[in-house]
Amino acid sequence: MRSRLLWLLLALLLALGPARVGADGHTDLDREARAIAKDLACPVCEGQSVADSGSALAAQIRDLIRKRLEEGWSREAIIAYLEERYGEGIRRAPPPQGFGGLLWLGAVLLPVVGLAIVLRVIAGALRARPEPDEAPLTPADLARLEALLERSPAEERTP
Amino acid sequence: MSVPDVGYLATLLALALVIYGLLALALGLRWSLPDLLASGRNAALGTAALLTVAALALLYAFLSRDFSVRYVAENASRDMPLLVTATAFWGGQAGSLLFWAWMLALFTALFVLTDLPRAPRLGLPALLVLLLIQTFFLGLLGFVSSPFERLPQPVSDGRGLNPLLWDEGMRVHPPLLLTGYMSFSLPFALTMGALLRGRLGADWLRLVRKWMLIAWAVQSAGLLAGAWWAYHVLGWGGYWGWDPVENAALLPWLTATAFLHSIMVQERRGMLRVWNVGLAIATFGLAIFGTFVVRSGVLSSVHSFAQSLIGPYFFAFLGVSLIAALALLVYRLPVLTSQGTFDAVLARESAFLLNNLLFTASAAVTFWGTIFPLLSEIVRGVKITVGPPFYQQVNGPLFLGIVLLMGVGPLLAWRRTALPTLWRLVRGPLLAAVLAGGFLWAVGMRTGLALLALMVCVFTAATILWEYHQAVRVRRRAGQPWLRALALVFAQNRRRYGGYLVHLGVVLLAVGVVVSSFFQAETALTLQRGETFQIGPYRLTYQGLEPRIEPGVAIVAARLTVEGDLLGPVVLTPERRVHRHWEQQPVTTVAYRTLLPRLDDLYILLVNWQEGGQATFRVFLNPLVTLLWVGGLLLLLGTLVALWPERAGPVRQPMAVPREVVPSEV
Q1: pLDDT in tens, B531-541
Q2: For residue B661, which residues of chain A lie inside 8 Å, CB to CB?
Q3: Looking at the domain assignment, is residue B482 inside a domain?
Q4: Which among B410, B200, B340, B198 has a CA at the least distance from the CA of B654?
Q5: What is the count of structural domains for chain B?
Q6: Is residue B663 a part of any domain in this protein?
Q7: B507 and B637 fall within a common domain
Q8: Residues 532-561 of B with CB under 8 A from A
Q9: With helix as H, strand as E and coil as C, how does B128-169 read?
Q10: What angle do CA B647, B651, B652 make, to 5 degrees?
Q11: B540 part of a folded domain
Q12: Is residue B649 in a domain?
């Protein structure tokens, strides 16, 4: 019974699975053109890429990318050409050289510094761990502790 | 006196009342005068009543289309349906501020009525801080940016709301997000109250956790509603664009998530107090920053900062709040010493530290990317864009780490976990992940990153499901029937098993994000009437155009039929709408449908058409986007379970030394 259920499940999965990849029937050139367009900001609309924007200018740029690719231009050459025409803002992320390098440097440094701090905290807390053979609590300590224990929850209840 | 004047008067009275309340509380606390304290409390309740009057007055001004009011004239028009007109309440800056202040007053009143009586020593100074925040917002509403301001000459018709906002998303997303931003004030006020008082006691832990969880839930709902809105309205086939305003909404959510986890370490082990206070402060600062960014556009350009009337006030408020909060934190450092220690590296404590690292690192790099264009414009005078390629590359690995940690973390015991124990717990889920990876490979998935991410998701889902399974099995052995056992699991430890539901929701979200971003297919094509084309396993036939007119709107709809869905043929009608007053900005209405059994979203836009009925479409095939909404709902459900008040029972005790060894008073 149980194994039949598993087989059914597997059959269902196999029916669902078949390659989502390449389902759109695009060529490599289409894919490359779309990848480039995805990394470019549409100059006339807030926040959308050239690939996704419905504006006429974005459509023009998409055609231009395709044409240049067919002519054998490289990805970087096309982006550089567009950057000259529309300004640095057309890149959806600045390149890691020059001023844009600061952005990427920050993005790497911030987590690394954070990790260093966390490791130090853990190391510090491990070192602060009390030795197991420490002197046991004296009766006076215990009495004090008990007094405090009683005081603190009680204080919470009575405003 | 007309209704808008009543609204304005109510705002001013509320401001006066808040200032009175502040003085009463401050003096009452200083000299322990119970009458003054009670009066300050009532002032907070009165403010809520007055701001409700103000909000209703503005709503009335909108519904009666009172175009003598500037804010109404700018955001509404006669063509707008009544429901859309009502949502114009938060369509601009002044109304959004009023909504923020109104919600703060309501939440404050709720706090005064429910929590204050039980914890007055913490609650009263916290109320003082809440009223301080309220003073700032009411000051802005009274003297800088009032939604009740009159026009010199009433106009016969207003400009109306941007047609992109004529949508049901407008009814949920902005109010949720404004409420979310606002609600981070409560954990902040509680934390400041605790610092003023001089101790982070058990009452602080209990209340701050509760209010942070509420704020987190509202902000999560706001973010999800925003993603859903973007997806079905903006028409670019996506749901999250990493634009500055979205980032601003995500930032406090990230730090709040970190806080909700690290607070558990303080609760159980008495550690990380300073860090938790810092996170509460940072979250509030980011929420104020977000409130401001949402309505000012300052992040797309420095120049809009100068145009924004409220900019300088907001930054002054933010600066003063942060400096005051940090000063108080430094002043109280001596009472915030950590009491617990680490016993081993491999323990729950380390997992929480790592969790906090990942969330704060993600917040830090997102913040850095968000303000970087501003830096570029100030330093070099050059406009640049920091968009998805940056955030995906830097946040992708961090988020993957978070999902992985969600699987491992809960398996680790507090204090110390033996490696063999851990291995026994993870080997099952690891096997599941490897099998899933093999299966995906076998059906033709060859994208390495997607495979890795999905395997991590399967691993984490398996550990969570295994935890549920174990918990249910124990109770079934005790003779409980299956469903009753599951109910008991939740009832007996709401926080833990509610939290796991949230985690499961996040895993579903992650699967949806990974699959839809790696395997989205898109195509643009022009079709003659009756022509058919194939995308993936689906056959689309274009049937023709159907133009129609609605009040103030001209609409052209295209009709397409889709074959390939399990439940039979589907009709989709993408539209283009031209609204009066907004002729330059036609709105595209997306038509989409989730198709069974593969859960692909077929997402169609009408781009253009010619005389003969020939039309151009953009068609997206977005796989598994539905998992985002399902995962989101599960996340909210889990939060609700975790928030549900426990029946009075034994109080959870800390494991080590009691939290308060030295109760010190202000």
Answers
A1: 998 888 899 99
A2: 148, 152
A3: yes
A4: B340
A5: 3
A6: no
A7: yes
A8: 534-537
A9: HHHHHHHHHHHHHHHHCCCCCCECCCCCCCCCCCCHHHCCCH
A10: 115
A11: yes
A12: no
